[in-house]
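Q: I'm building a small set of examples for a reading group on sequence design. Run inverse folding on the following structure and report the sequence directly after it, with nothing in between.
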């Protein structure tokens, strides 16, 4: 007497392949459920397949090729060649994931924070640390990283026109040693009384002051007492605003 074979409705690709395997093996729906422990009707439902169902099926039928079951590639039954192919695919994906993570880590190491003017607090300390609430965003600008920029800040005001306009972004390298200042170079100056200002630096009338010079002639130079300076950074690059 010929055994009757149930007709299974098509569902997800993996479920279809499980049912195809059952058909080829001459298994009824009831026999498949009993041998695998999969609950009745699961393979006919329109939902996707779970890891638990896959594990139950593969435990009972380890001879089925994983590559065929998951991706529909190669022969239904496990072969040494099919297994090598799947292992190669897994290794390739692992390598790609590692390379992607390495790239992300590298970008994070090279990103430069765009800070608010409130970063002046602690600006001149040797262990200068930018807090999260001081950061507006992060950028990766290779040429600024090569110039050892520590932070970016947006220019406000008109005193440094035409060199810098409001909205320009300047890249700054913190000076931890004020012994060798670059006179007539643009600097970001942290002050106790006015926060951060952008000016050219020139020698003062004596050792207790530094002259802050604007490029815009409408803004006269003025002396800054050195003991009022909380930090200095030299400008190493710029990105024009709107």
């Amino acid at each position: 007497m010929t055994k009757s074979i149930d007709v299974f409705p098509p569902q997800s690709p993996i479920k279809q392949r499980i049912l195809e395997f059952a058909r080829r093996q001459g298994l009824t729906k009831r026999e498949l459920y009993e041998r695998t422990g999969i609950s009745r009707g699961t393979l006919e439902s329109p939902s996707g397949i779970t890891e638990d169902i896959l594990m139950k099926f593969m435990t009972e039928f380890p001879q089925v090729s994983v590559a065929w079951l998951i991706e529909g590639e190669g022969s239904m039954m496990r072969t040494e060649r099919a297994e090598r192919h799947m292992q190669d695919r897994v290794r390739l994906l692992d390598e790609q994931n590692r390379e992607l993570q390495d790239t992300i880590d590298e970008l994070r190491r090279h990103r430069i924070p765009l800070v608010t003017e409130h970063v002046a607090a602690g600006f001149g300390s040797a262990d200068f640390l930018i807090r999260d609430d001081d950061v507006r965003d992060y950028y990766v600008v290779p040429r600024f990283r090569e110039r050892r920029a520590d932070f970016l800040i947006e220019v406000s005001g008109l005193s440094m026109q035409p060199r810098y306009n409001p909205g320009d972004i300047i890249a700054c390298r913190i000076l931890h040693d004020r012994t060798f200042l670059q006179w007539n170079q643009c600097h970001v100056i942290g002050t106790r009384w006015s926060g951060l200002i952008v000016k050219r630096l020139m020698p003062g009338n004596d050792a207790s002051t530094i002259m802050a010079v604007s490029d815009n002639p409408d803004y006269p130079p003025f002396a800054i007492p050195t003991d009022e300076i909380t930090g200095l950074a030299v400008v190493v690059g710029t990105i024009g605003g709107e």
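The helical segments are 13-25, 29-36, 51-60, 66-71, 80-110, 142-146.
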